[in-house]
Amino acid sequence: MNHNTPVPPLSPRPLRHLAEVHRRVMTAGRLRAQGVSVAEANEQCRPGGPWQQLLPGVFLLHPGPPTSEERLHAVLMYAARERGTGVPSQPGAEDPHRPVYAEAMITGLAALTLHGFSSTPPLLSLDRIDVLVPRMRRLRSAGGARIVRTSALPAPEQVTGLPVAPVPRALADAVTELTDAGAVRRLLTEAVRGGHCEPAAVVRELNNAKLLSRPHVVDAVDSLLAEGRAIAEDRLYRMVREYGLPDPVWNVDLRLPGGPHLGGLDAYWPDQAVAVELDTRAPRQDEDALWSEYARKREHLERLGITVVHITPRKLRDAMEQQATVVRTALMASGDRDPAAYVVVLPR
After folding, report:
1. Which domains does the chain have, with CATH numbers?
2. What pTM, to 2 d.p., does this model score?
């Protein structure tokens, strides 16, 4: 075959072929690779024609409304980093028809819906789909695509074969656009109750997005932190019960006899002088100061001979058995240590 032969005018046969490709959404670059010029593609998108242009340079190869999946692919094709061929998305080796999107991922409400949230709208009801790209990309929001920029692109998670922002980042991008306090609270609460992420990760992203100056967001965050601590405490109770640890005294304050307050603890074993403290710090502006306070309390208690085990909510969720082993080891090692100083244990 002579590869220098001019491409003949568009015929019904290649059109039928193109209409059957994966997702039936293609970029102008991919169409050119199939022998279809921009002028020919535009001709197919005339009123009443068989195709339509969803976004600049992105075509839907059938009439009628796009499916939610076609909209997601169209947004990613529009925003993905162009390769050397000028084609935003290239097929992957494992699936020759499935595109691979570079430096672009679904975020915001659409991402949360893909992650399985029940408090977000169905994809088809969203007027625009948010797509996260690096800050320096020269892209504008267009049609059903809203461009969201970031100086540090997170590693995407693959959901139904699509690159999707992690839940904390998607939450922050969704909350940026929300003014309804109830909607914000529902999203943050579902993120924690549903086990999608820990409160600290959410607050960190909200802080990075400079959203903690908005009163309705601050109120929702306060509820979120209370919810997160309650869930962590419940997991701590369950860890003690399920892994056969001796019963501690729960939620206590320690004081030196006639002396100063030493601090509150989530669990304490007086006979072994072992304490557990849940690290539920919220990563806000004063994180360093708060961590210094944690560290000072821990050092003071350990000088008195009390072993302090710090456990994060995430470790309780993901590695409960390992955390139980850490506590059990500390309890067993108590017999090898010098006796701890006498302290007064008070209910908190």
Report:
1. 12-177 (no CATH), 246-347 (3.40.960)
2. 0.74
